[in-house]
Amino acid sequence: MKKNKLTLWELDSSKIKGFENEPLVCTLMGAELAERKGALQKEIFSQVKKVEEIEIGYIFSFKYDESFLIKMTDYVIAENNCCPFFTFEIKLHSKNDALLKITGPPEAKKMLEMFLAEGK
Q1: Which of 5, 64, 69, 83 is the most exposed place for a label (fewest CB within 10 A)?
Q2: Which pLDDT tens digit goes with each residue over 53-89?
Q3: For the segment 86-98, what is each residue's pLDDT rounded down to a tens digit?
Q4: Do residues 61 and 52 touch, judged by C-beta distance below 8 A?
Q5: Which of 81, 86, 85 is nearest to 100 (CA)?
């Protein structure tokens, strides 16, 4: 992923249809934001088996595990509260795979790309 000069959690959304008057800003700040990012990397994104980039976001594949699915659902609820510009979908494929699809406007995808790059 290429480096961006935009900050991770605040990007100009003035040209995104439907978000013209609403900035894409995470409501978390400071220590709370750092704690959330660390927990996401450790508890959720460290478990990714495969990442698929799609035009409007990403699809993350995880091993099916019921206790992990509870953590992932908690993550989606928490993220939906602080970053409502993302759309989250969880799909289960039998008892083999769990998929998490995160989509949003182009600027939101850039935020996700920077977050993923930070975790490497």
Answers
A1: 5
A2: 999 899 999 999 999 999 999 888 888 888 888 899 9
A3: 899 999 987 889 9
A4: yes
A5: 86
Cβ contacts of 72 within 8 Å, gap of 6 or more: 44, 62, 90, 98, 100
pTM, rounded to two decimals: 0.73
Report the C-alpha dihedral over residues 11, 15, 17, 18, rounded to 10 degrees.
Answer: 50
Measure the CA–CA gap between 13 and 106, rounded to whole angstroms: 9
Question: Two tokens at 29?
Answer: 């700040």
Q: Are 66 and 34 in contact (CB under 8 A)?
A: no
Domain boundaries, the chain: 10-118
**Hey, is 40 helix, strand or coil?**
helix
Residues of the chain with pLDDT > 70: what percent? 76
Question: DSSP class of residue 45?
Answer: G
Amino acid identity at 120: K
- Take residue 27 and report the two structure tokens written for it: 């409501």
pLDDT of residue 60: 94
- CA distance linking residue 54 with residue 60, whole number of Å: 11
